[in-house]
Amino acid sequence: MRHQLSGKVRGALQVAAECQKRFACSTSLAELPGKGHGYEVTLSGNFVEEVAEHLIKTYGIPKKYFLVSGQGSLRYLHR
Q1: In angstroms, what is the C-alpha Rg of the chain?
Q2: Residue 47 in contact with residue 69, Cβ under 8 Å?
Q3: What's the whole-number mean pLDDT along residues 59-71?
Q4: What DSSP assignment string belongs to 1-33?
Q5: Is residue 70 within 8 Å of 7, Cβ to Cβ?
Q6: What is the mean predicted confidence (pLDDT) over 61-78?
Q7: CA 49 to the chain's CA centroid
Q8: Which terminal Cβ of the chain has fewer Cβ within 10 Å, N or C?
Q9: CA distance 30 to 17
């Protein structure tokens, strides 16, 4: 039996896969706490500004959905 992915999962997977190829980085996908609250895409590498600029220009995602850690990781909360 084949599982159907929701639009939120497909969208988050698409963003993760595209960034992984474009920036040659590792990515991970995690569900946000609470039912139906969306997904978190985590990208690891030293290119935070480039990724943020790409997501803003390509997808029109506001900066308020980005979280940058001190280790150079960028987290995007996909809702």
Answers
A1: 12
A2: no
A3: 75
A4: -PPPPPHHHHHHHHHHHHHHHHHT-EEEEEEPS
A5: no
A6: 69
A7: 14
A8: N
A9: 14
- Categorize the per-residue pLDDT at 5 as very low, low, confident or very high, splitting at 50, 70 and 90: very low
Rounded (5°) CA angle 40-75-7: 30
Output 22 or 71, whichever has higher pLDDT. Answer: 22
Contact 75, 12 (CB under 8 A): no
User: What are the φ and ψ backbone dihedral angles of 69, each rounded to 5 degrees?
Assistant: -90, 165
> What are the tokens at 61?
């995602």
Helix (H, G, I), strand (E, B) or coil at 60: coil
For residue 49, the one-letter residue type is E
pTM of the model: 0.68
pLDDT of residue 39: 82
Residue with tokens 């029109």: 60
Amino acid at 75: R
